[in-house]
Amino acid sequence: MNLVEKLMKIDRGELNKKKTKEIPSRMLSEILGEDASVTIQSLNPQEVLELTMVGLDGNGDPILEKSLETNSLLVATAMIDPQLKDAGLMEHLGVHTPAMAALKLFKGEVNKIAAEVNKMAGFDMKGDDSDKEIKN
């Protein structure tokens, strides 16, 4: 059976199904005084690209000063537990947006969580040897 035949046996709905991942959170563990994890869901690659455009200049180059802001947007969009969009939680934290809630709760850890969001969208650049395999 060739690859096309194998792909045609896959339920199309599976290709669009959102996946979830639980990630341990050091920051939440410190806040709560016990081990804590967060749950993120996969975003489609286009959604990730649109969210990350906030951190690019006119030439499409990353603006270092906006990387934390960009990552907090990714985290706020992908996070399903805790639900950062919850109005009561945002009010309790004294913030106005889910991205601000992400920064308040996770501080620099948003970078680690955003990296997982990128991986789930297929943007895992570290350790990607596929180009080497294709060239050889």
Attribute tags:
136 residues, mainly alpha, 10% strand, globular
Would you kindly provide a written description of the structure presented here, covering whatever features stand out?
The protein has helices at residues 3-8, 12-16, 26-32, 45-52, 67-78, 87-93, 98-106, 110-120, 130-135; strands at residues 20-24, 37-41, 79-81. The chain has nine helices and three strands. Strands 1-2-3 form a three-stranded antiparallel sheet. The chain is mainly alpha-helical and 136 residues long.
Number of helices: 9
Radius of gyration from the alpha-carbon trace, in angstroms: 18 Å
Mean pLDDT: 88
Distance between the termini: 25 Å
Order of helices and strands: HHEHEHHEHHHH
Structural class based on helices, strands and sheet pairing: mainly alpha
Query: Helical amount among residues, as a percent range?
Result: 40-55%
Hey, roughly how much beta strand do the residues contain? 5-15%
Which oligomeric state applies?
Answer: single chain
Main sheet summary: 3 strands, antiparallel
Strands, total number: 3
Which stretches are low in confidence, meaning pLDDT under 50 for 5 or more residues running? none
**Inertia-based shape:** globular
Going across the major beta sheet, what is the strand order? Answer: 1-2-3
Secondary-structure map:
Layout: H1 3-8, H2 12-16, E1 20-24, H3 26-32, E2 37-41, H4 45-52, H5 67-78, E3 79-81, H6 87-93, H7 98-106, H8 110-120, H9 130-135
Short summary of the structure?
The protein has 136 residues and is mainly alpha-helical. Helix content is 52%, strand content 10%.
